[in-house]
From TrEMBL:
Superkingdom of source: Bacteria
Composition-biased stretches (Polar residues): 84-103
Family annotation (Gene3D superfamilies): PSPTO_1197 like (1.10.10.710)
Organism placement in taxonomy: Bacteria, Pseudomonadati, Pseudomonadota, Gammaproteobacteria, Cellvibrionales
Protein name per Swiss-Prot or TrEMBL: YebG family protein
Amino acid sequence: MAVVAVWKCDRDGAMFDNKKDAEEHDKMLELAANITALIERNIDGVSEDACEEIGLMLAKRREVLAKACKGKPEALLEAEDSNAETGSEQADSENVTPLAANQ
């Protein structure tokens, strides 16, 4: 029986083949949680689920968001267009290794 090393993110239980991807995912989830808390504190009337979705969406697009904040607001729309064309949102979830029992 072979032993396979995997890294598990304690925030959501996602499994990864390497430590770098696991740490990147964990940092993204931490950013999402902080954005969610910021929205909840500053905007009344937004549901908890909506806050979490917004926080996760912004955290996943943090590089493009940073470009937009630095003077390229059109980068947000360009990134959205390219995501729709290439399906790169699915690529994010492809880094997660499914946990299989009894292999």
